[in-house]
Amino acid sequence: MKHKMQILQESADVLGPLCVGLDTDPSYLPPSVLSGFRSPAQAVLAYNKELIKGIAQSKSACCFKIQIAYYEAMGLEGLAAYAETLKAARKSGLPVISDVKRGDIAATADAYARAHFSGDFETDIITVNPYMGFDTLLPFTEYCSPSKGGKGVFVLLRTSNPGTADIEQKELKSGKRVLDAVGDGLLSLCGEWKKDYPEETCFPIGAVVGCTGESDAKCLRKTYPDIFFLIPGYGAQGGAARIAAALLENAGGTVNSSRAILCAWKKDENLERQRNDGTLGLDDIVKSAVYVAEISKKDLLEAKADFLH
Length: 309
Fold this sequence. Notes:
Layout: H1 4-15, E1 18-21, H2 31-34, H3 40-58, E2 63-67, H4 69-72, H5 75-91, E3 96-102, H6 106-117, E4 125-128, H7 138-141, E5 152-158, H8 178-191, E6 205-209, H9 214-223, E7 229-231, H10 241-246, E8 253-257, H11 259-262, H12 272-277, H13 282-308
Parallel strand pairs: 1-2, 1-8, 2-3, 3-4, 4-5, 5-6, 6-7, 7-8
Domain Orotidine 5'-phosphate decarboxylase: 17-274
Keywords: Decarboxylase, Lyase, Pyrimidine biosynthesis
GO molecular function, one term: orotidine-5'-phosphate decarboxylase activity
């Protein structure tokens, strides 16, 4: 049995490194589309479902990442849309990452793990926050075992926001940075899984490493060669493809793009007339999003090729 991170790594090898983020806020949809549904949550769900189909058919991405916050913000109906989006994404055959960044102690962490690795919100891989200690991650990593479905976990290591300097980059008395200490814990955690998956080419536990810090990219990839990366920050956050490419060596990774794809219709020259007269339809914005996904995939693959050669 392959664990979910191995399946994601193989998907990235075949389909390219792009991850499509379904961080779908109602404001990302034009009024002409929103008005066709009884609620913003229903409009978001319809967009997600059609976009998932389009991405899967075009083979422009290796996985989907769904950020739960956007759905929580829409209340109970939003959480229902989240559950249905998860089902549609998993049905597509592509791996699914739930961006939930959970991290709490004891029984609370166990409840979070059950919530996202089983039941209505079941997913393949989740993001977790290690800053309350690595013992808080054990209820999540238990689900990485073959007996519990071989789920995957991405641990926050180096994020893509400017505030990374506030904590992650702080120097400790040892001379290491805080993120280096997190990395040491991550390596220790990964080492425990060698016996369960001796033939796999990556661990079921990966790391979140943003591509907005060029100076860190090569160093982090060299330090953690066998760990698969989830790479945010590309596209709307300003991360360049060349930085992402430096993180794709060795065990590789998947590069997330959300707003640049979801909001592609806003900059699509072919849709200028429909934008101006308010006649944009669901098909229009989906086609525009899929096209940008295809361009993004090409951009990342070219940058990777340039970096390797």
